[in-house]
Amino acid sequence: MPATVVVGTQWGDEGKGKLTDLLAERAQVVVRYQGGHNAGHTIVVAGESFALQLIPSGVLYPSVVPVIGNGVVVDPQVLLAELGALEDRGVDCSRLRVSGSAHLIMPYHQELDALAERRLGRNKLGTTKRGIGPAYADKASRIGLRVQDLLDPKIFRQKLELVLKEKNQVLAKVYNRLPLSADEISERYLRQYAPRLAPLVADTVAIVHDALDAGQEVLLEGAQATFLDLDHGTYPFVTSSNPVAGGACTGAGVGPRHITRVIGVAKAYLTRVGSGPFPTELTGALGDELVERGHEYGTNTGRRRRTGWFDAVMARQAVRLNSLTEIALTKLDVLDERESIRVCVAYEHDGVRYEHLPYHQSVLHQATPLYEELPGWQADTTGASSLADLPPPARAYVERLASLAGVPIHLVGVGPGREQFVRLGG
What we know:
4-stranded mixed beta sheet, globular
C-alpha cells in the first residue's frame, strides 16, 4: 500500500502531530523521518495533553509500530526521558523502533550550539541550542556517531576519541572552555543509555518496506516545516535537515513511487519562532490577541511565537515543493472573534508583483504583502463536526484559501482535541 507524508507548510507549529495522530488510527507504521528534539508535537486525547519530542505521534495507538528513522538525530537522554514519561502515564512504548543509522547528539554538540549562538549576538539564528545543527554538521562531515555505535563499545570509544581531539581544540582555543572527557561521555552513553536503547534498535528500512509489501498503511511524519528546510527555507533562519516531503524518502528509506498522498498542514493564520523574514507579521494588540487565543508558545521551549496573516504566496510554494495532494487547515477557531480577516495573496517589491516566493532573500526581506480582506464570522466553531456546522463566512474563508493555494482543503481543525476536526472530503 502507498505511504502518506504529513508535512508542515509554513514555519512549523501547524499541528502536524495532531493530524498524524488522527490518521494513525488506520496506520500500522508511523515514521518520524527527520529533525531532533527541537520540535514538539502536542496531542490532546480525552482532555489529556501529550507533548512529544522524538517519539512519533502514532505511539498512542497500541496497534501502531512507531519508528524513528535514519534521518533523525537522537539525544539518548531525551529519548529515554520521553519514554519514561509516557510509560508513567500508561502508554506502552515497547513497540518503538529506532534506526541504527540515526545519528547521536553528543554533549559537545549541545555546548558548541549554545556557544556559537551566543557569539553571533544580535545576528543569532534563534536555534534551540540543543545540538541539532552541530550533529547534522558532523553527519555531513562523516565524523558523526550513530545509534548502532552504542552496540559496539570498542568502535564507539575509537570514534569518540577521534572526534574529541577536534572538538576539544575548538572548545579550548575558540571559546576558552575546558576539554570534555572521553571517559565521562563513554560511561554515560555506553553504560547508562546503551543497555536501555539496545532492545529498540532495528533495521527500520526493513520494517517500513515489510509493512508496504504487506499492504499496510505507513505514515511518514516530518518535524519543523517547509520554510525551515535547509535547502528551500528562509536560509539561514532554517533547521539543519529537510522537512519537505522529499526528505521523507531519504529519512525513512523509501523511494518516491511508494508515496502517493502528501498532506500539507497549515494554520488558518501564520506563526514562526525565532529570527527571520515574516512579510505578514502582526505586531501590537492584534498580534498579541492571536498569541493568546492560539496559545502560541513553543511546546518544548515555551518561546513566544510571532504571528501574522495567512500567506498564500508561501502556501503556493509549499504546494510546489512538496507535491501536496491536499491541505489540512488547523486552528480556524482562533479567528472566531475577528470581524474581518486578511489574506496575503501576493507580494510587491520595486513595482514587481510576486505570486510565488521570490528566490532572492533581499527581496523577501523587503517585500510588501498585498492583502485581500474577507469578512469574519464572529461565531464559535469549536463544536463544529460537519461542513454545515461552519458559519457561511468561515466556509468561504476556507474555500478561498484552497483556491489561492491550488489544492483542496480536506480537513479543518476547530480546537486542540483529537476529535475537533471537520472533514470536507478526502
